[in-house]
Amino acid sequence: YKNGFVAIYFIITPDINIPLTSLYPLPEILHELGGNFSIKSKDKTTRVEIEIPSMPIVKLLVIDDNPDIIHYYRRVLAHTRYFITDLGEGSQVLDTIEKLQPDIIVLDVMLPDTDGWELLSQIKGRPGDKSIPVIVCSVLGQKELALSLGAEAFFSKSFSRLEFIQALDHAASRLYII
Q1: Among 67, 76, 93, 170, which residue's Cβ finds the most Cβ atoms within 10 Å?
Q2: Within 6-160, where are the H helices?
Q3: How many Cα atoms are found within 13 Å in the side-chain-facing hemisphere of 106?
Q4: How would DSSP label each residue in the chain?
Q5: What is the pLDDT of residues 94-145, one digit of tens each?
Q6: Is the Cβ–Cβ distance between 102 and 60 less than 8 Å?
Q7: Backbone phi, then psi, for 65, in 5-degree steps?
Q8: 25 to each of 20, 22, 29, 58, 83, how far by Cα in Å?
Q9: C-alpha distances out from residue 9 to 21, 24, 38, Å
Q10: Whole-number Å distance between alpha carbons of 53 and 36
Q11: 55: which DSSP letter?
């Protein structure tokens, strides 16, 4: 990783003569992604170099009092660009949002100390926080209520890994975190 790019290098010995046209469409695809591709021969070796832009880290604030669910989120999002900070209580959420400045919030509405619907309303009512996408994940099947209070998406707790990552990717793309 260097200067916002991930670089992959291959050193091939002995030197081989690979015409760039034989690797079509790889150079074109990398160019479209903002990356680079090159082949250089020197001192009886061939160096193949691929550079692609790295994906920026997306900060998630997960608000859920169930440690098993937090563990599940961490497992689902392992080796992705999503970094999780979690809270088990709603009373600390507004202060944590100010300190962490999360890109996306994942909210369970059944919290031990706070009404999650009220918390969602508070987040969406604060000028500095209302633009943060909130994804509600709950056993309560109240999708319409979640969306009417400003949630980006709603999932029952039986969602698939793919659905969850797609919802996060959609929210991140709307924030220009591509």
Answers
A1: 93
A2: 26-32, 67-76, 93-100, 116-125, 143-148
A3: 30
A4: -BTTEEEEEEEESS-----GGGGTTHHHHHHHTT-EEEEEEETTEEEEEEEEEPPPPEEEEEE-S-HHHHHHHHHHTTTSSEEEEEES-GGGHHHHHHHH--SEEEE-SB-SSSBHHHHHHHHHHSTTTTTS-EEEEESS--HHHHHHTT-SEEEETT--HHHHHHHHHHHHHHTT--
A5: 999 999 999 999 999 999 999 999 999 999 999 989 999 999 998 888 999 9
A6: yes
A7: -90, 0
A8: 10, 9, 6, 30, 33
A9: 19, 18, 10
A10: 9
A11: P
Give phi and psi for 152, each to the nearest 5. Answer: -70, -40
Put simply, whether the predicted model's pTM sits higher than 0.85 gets the answer no
